[in-house]
Design goal:
The chain is elongated. It folds into two domains: about 190 residues, no CATH class; about 250 residues, Beta-galactosidase, Chain A, domain 5, CATH 2.70.98. Helix 8 packs antiparallel against helix 11. The longest helix is centred in the N-terminal third of the chain and has 29 residues. The strands form three sheets. Strands 7-9-10-11-20-17-16-13-14 form a nine-stranded antiparallel beta sheet, with no helix packed on it. Strands 1-15-18-19-12-6 form a six-stranded antiparallel beta sheet, with no helix packed on it. A five-stranded mixed beta sheet has the order 5-4-3-2-8, with no helix packed on it. About 35% of the residues lie in helices and about 25% in strands. The chain has eleven helices and 20 strands. It is an alpha+beta fold. The termini are far apart.
């Protein structure tokens, strides 16, 4: 549902720009002098089938997951003994673990605050669903507790950079069965290495399953409601997001990873061994989800079984997820224009490493794009100037054949051909930059690197709108100046309509991320400078 709504939003935005930019040119090309007299027919919008949220570029799995109607949530049976907590502190996070199933009660990210207000608390990505905490180990084995009440062999840990930390959770059954759960912490990243070992101390075999779970419940603002919040998984190289319906999905196979997400953060399990494994994904409510990684057990007496996995509990930082491999970077929801958004984010990160400011990085990116498009811009302005020079001939043709539209278009085509003019070439630079614009919009919308990233003065969050609407107004003014400088062959009515466009775009940009407005503002300023220089050179060439 959310993916469909988001695609509609992006498509509507692109189509709006195409209409604003190309509509007058199209009328001019067809020889229609004023659009005001045209009566447009409106067609009913066709319903769009709502499908399961699937990452762009990815297809459905060869064997689709089984979907069943969700049953009422069942809270796991917790031990009756007193719960014990242990804290692990690293430079990146502070984790609190429970003796109940060895799950996480809290995982606070030190480098990410909930809001930009002074004194705001760190983001805690743990918010349990149905009493299930992330990484809690549960058992479905006759004679063993569903949630083991572990004994923690160790005290609170404080791990410095370059070190490793370890915690061991142990449960001893009366029948001699032993369950050991080992955590290894690294202070340099957001990964936790986990090993669950079950040793059969009975005189008979043990059959059942061991479950390790990830869960999350999210507080979602209206502006973030277009993004997925809930379970996702990657199987056979395909990343798939579960549709936010109250359903359960389950399947066997070899998941490369499973997890739950919101726009900026990811909680994931990356199995080490996929043999005899299965998964089950549940969405109990709209902005909540849990996903289970299970492994079947069949242990002879005195034998043991080990389930090993790596957990990722942290931000969707692009470079960090790329370095982890296994397609974990697909958890970043770049949307329709991911092929453009990804390299844009790489370039922005590159510039930011040197200048230390994403606002300046956006300006540098804009300069690079303008330089790349300079030859095309120059050709476009030359073509527009030629169009202006032959305008009297165009008007004469339109007047002569005003009652014969087909003949008029043919004569105009021959005129353009004679002077080697493409009437739509003036729009080409803008058309080619639209994917860059939308790609940057995606980056500013989903990249956590831009979340709460300051620029200067009143702009302290490039991913949020300009609080005082100063940059959108400046953008509108710069667009007006650029229009006045650009040669035009439109009649007075069309020219007046075009003058309204800076006003329309100003209001449109007021709700856009300030980083995107800065990009378009700087783009306009550079375009004005380019046009001035090109016209100056053209004047010298004529002289």
């Amino acid at each position: 549902m959310f993916e469909t709504d988001r695609k509609r939003l992006i498509i509507a935005m692109v189509l709006s720009f195409l209409v604003i930019i190309f509509y007058p040119k199209l009328l001019e090309y067809l020889g229609i002098e004023t659009p005001a007299t045209r009566q447009e027919e409106t067609t009913a919008e066709q319903p769009v089938a709502q499908t399961e949220k699937t990452d762009s570029k990815q297809a459905e799995p060869t064997k689709p997951a089984k979907t069943v109607k969700a049953e009422p949530p069942v809270t796991p049976s917790l031990p009756e003994v007193e719960e014990r907590l242990v804290t692990v502190d690293t430079p990146l996070y502070t984790a609190v673990l429970s003796s109940y199933g060895g799950g996480l009660k809290s995982f606070k990210l030190k480098h990410y605050k909930q809001t930009m207000e002074e004194g705001s608390k760190p983001v805690d990505i743990v918010n349990p669903v149905d009493g299930i905490y992330p990484l809690m180990t549960r058992l479905k084995v006759t004679g063993l507790p569903e949630v083991p009440a572990f004994t923690i062999t160790g005290k609170d840990l404080s791990i410095e950079k370059g070190q490793k930390g370890e915690l061991l959770f142990v449960w001893h059954g009366k029948d001699g069965t032993v369950i050991e759960k080992r955590y290894i912490f690294s202070p340099d990243n957001y990964t936790l290495d986990v090993e669950v070992k079950i040793t059969n101390g009975r005189g008979e075999s043990i059959k059942g399953t061991v479950l390790n779970e990830i869960s999350g419940k999210f507080v979602v603002s209206k502006s973030d409601s277009y993004f997925h919040h809930g379970p996702l998984r990657r199987i056979d190289g395909k990343t798939k997001r579960q549709d936010p319906e109250t359903t359960i999905e389950m399947g066997k196979g070899s998941p490369e990873w499973i997890g739950v997400e919101d726009k900026y953060f990811l909680l994931a399990i990356i199995p080490e061994d996929n043999k005899n494994t299965f998964w089950e994904s549940t969405v109990p409510s709209q902005y909540a989800g849990k996903i289970t990684f299970g492994k079947t057990l069949e242990l002879e007496p005195s034998h043991h079984a080990i389930t090993s996995f790596t957990a990722y509990m942290g931000p969707k930082e692009y470079d960090r997820l790329i370095a982890m491999g296994r397609g974990l970077d697909e958890a970043i929801e770049f949307g329709l224009f991911s092929l453009i958004a990804r390299p844009l984010l790489v370039v922005l990160n590159f510039f930011e490493r040197y200048v230390g400011n994403y606002g300046i990085a956006i300006i540098l990116l804009t300069v690079v794009i303008k330089l790349l498009f300079y030859p095309l811009t120059k050709h476009s302005l030359n073509s527009m100037r030629k169009m202006q020079e032959i305008q009297p001939q165009m008007l004469a043709i339109r007047e002569r054949y005003k009652n014969d539209r087909e003949r008029m278009n043919k004569e105009l085509y021959e005129l353009y051909k004679r002077y080697k003019i493409n009437p739509l070439s003036g729009c080409l630079p803008i058309f080619l930059q639209l994917p860059v614009f939308v790609g940057l919009y995606e980056v500013l919308s989903v990249a956590i690197e831009l979340r709460h990233a300051p620029f200067m003065l009143w702009i302290q969050d490039l991913s949020a709108k300009d609080p005082y609407y100063i940059t959108p107004v400046l953008m509108g003014i710069s667009m007006f100046i650029q229009q006045k400088m650009t040669p035009t062959t439109m009649d007075p009515t069309q020219a007046k309509i075009m003058l309204i466009m800076p006003v329309i775009l100003t209001f449109l940009f007021m709700s856009f991320p300030s980083g995107l407005v800065i990009y378009w503002l700087v783009n306009n300023i550079l375009s004005i400078a380019q046009q001035y220089q090109i016209y100056k050179d053209m004047g010298k060439a004529k002289a």
